[in-house]
Amino acid sequence: DYLLGKLCGVLLLILAGLAVMTVLLDAVLWYRTQTILSDFDKVAAILVEQGQFTAMERNEARSELLSQGVTWDLQAAVLVIFFEAAIISALALLVSTFSSSTLFTVVISTLCYFIGNFIADGLDHWRGTSGMEEGGIGELSTTAIFVAFPDYRPFKIVDEVVAGQVFPPEVLGGLALSTGLYVSLYVVLSWFIFANKEI
Prior knowledge:
82% of the residues lie in helices and 0% in strands. It has helices spanning 2-50, 55-67, 72-98, 102-130, 137-148, 157-162, 169-195. The longest helix is centred in the first third of the chain and has 49 residues, at 2-50.
């Protein structure tokens, strides 16, 4: 209960902060989009009158501008950021169960985050250059490392959404499942370590 309470408190704090920042982002982005659309409509009307722009081209360009504003894809990207933060929080909780120093917890959690960003590339390279056989001890050890450190590459879809690409809905479900598995794993490990700790 204590560990779950700590984790839920941290997650609620992160969620509240993200919600406030998202509302501010959406408000500023909506205002800027409306300003740009207003200017675009004035210029496009003149170009259509002069015959340099067709009404269909104007509508396509307007749709493209709207897709760069506040969209559901952007909201899904914010949710993915929350998923990533949930994994990091659960990992920090795990580290804090065997560490008495806050600085140590922060440093180890940060290192695990950076390892998670590059581990998949490193493992792919190692598998390609070492010529390990399937099902061998090398394959099992790399799988164990891969389970211990979460792969944050799929969470980088946020960068693509910010660049204007569409967020595939099926990816959100996969990331939610991955987040749930990692958070559950880290909470269970935290519980095992914390249960054996003398208070």
